[in-house]
Design a protein that fits this description.
globular; 37% helix; 282 residues; seven-stranded mixed beta sheet; alpha/beta
């Protein structure tokens, strides 16, 4: 529980509170991948980093762990509610002095040039619609020469084993392709990020994809995480599906259904995150 939010609360939650709860519920799915990705970065001990679009600070905690007690990680986000939650998490983790949080816009970061040794952003910078170049240049601006800009985001999944056609149709809905939009230029897609890193003047650009999986029997924590993920992944899709697909979606993807897919004794799912990294040139 964080800031009084728990699944099943009787009170009607706001949109922000609902999304915040979803972030907490799905964290057991994400944290193992983020841990592996951060380990692969081999961030310098005692370095100072920035998490752009830090949300409730879950990755800030992992990054702070990676740079050691003499390092420091700053989280920046537009949402005061998320930042309050992040500070609470840091207090509970016992590392409030190793991290800090600041309200700010990733397109106009409230930091001087060459402030950080590296910048990290998960499911945020470079992932939303729009031309990535100005944003990448802004991220690089606050990184010291030789430091890194790191962007990682969700890139694929199989959540409905045995139903590839239905899952493909769901992934083609407006919710399924979000944060992208129909008709978006191919070169603006997240998977084309290597080219944008180079256009922003960075060198030694790399990409690495991390996969994780889950299978039955599911713990209550993992079942809650997968349920929340399905609810986040395909929102208000009824109007974009055929009558048959909509019936299948209701049969397989609603927790109250007698055929909810997470109840399969042989349930198996996988999902991937892709991480891009570039070195800032002096």
């Amino acid at each position: 529980m964080i800031n009084g939010l728990v699944a099943g609360d009787d009170k009607k939650m706001t949109g922000t509170e609902t999304y915040l709860l979803s972030l907490m519920l799905t964290n057991p799915l994400q944290e193992p991948i983020f841990r592996r990705a951060i380990h692969a970065l081999n961030l310098p001990q005692e370095s100072r980093g920035l998490d752009v679009g830090c949300g409730i600070g879950l990755q800030v905690m992992l990054l702070a762990e990676a740079v050691g007690p003499a390092g420091h990680v700053t989280g920046v986000d537009l949402s005061p509610e998320f930042l309050d939650c992040a500070r609470s998490i840091a207090e509970q983790a016992g590392i409030p002095e190793q991290v800090s949080f600041q309200e700010g816009d990733m397109n106009n970061l409230p930091f001087d040039d060459n402030t950080f040794d590296w910048v990290w952003s998960a499911n945020c910078a470079g992932y939303a619609p729009g031309e990535p170049l100005p944003l990448l240049k802004e991220l690089a601006r606050v990184v010291k020469p030789g430091g890194s800009v790191i962007i990682i985001a969700w890139s694929s999944q199989q959540l409905l084993p045995g139903y590839p056609v239905l899952e493909a149709h769901l992934d083609a809905t407006s919710s399924g392709i979000a944060p992208f939009v129909e008709g978006m230029a191919p070169e603006l897609h997240f998977s084309r990020m290597m080219g944008w890193f180079r256009r922003a003047g960075m060198e030694d650009v790399t990409v690495q994809t991390f996969a994780s999986d889950v299978c039955a029997p599911l713990s209550e924590e993992m079942r809650s995480a997968l349920t929340a993920l399905i609810e986040m992944r395909w929102v208000d899709v009824g109007a974009e599906l055929s009558e048959g697909d909509w019936a299948e979606f209701q049969r397989l993807c609603l927790p109250e259904s007698r055929e909810f897919i997470l109840d399969l004794p042989d349930y198996y799912a996988f999902y991937t995150y892709s991480m891009f990294r570039g070195k800032v040139v002096g």
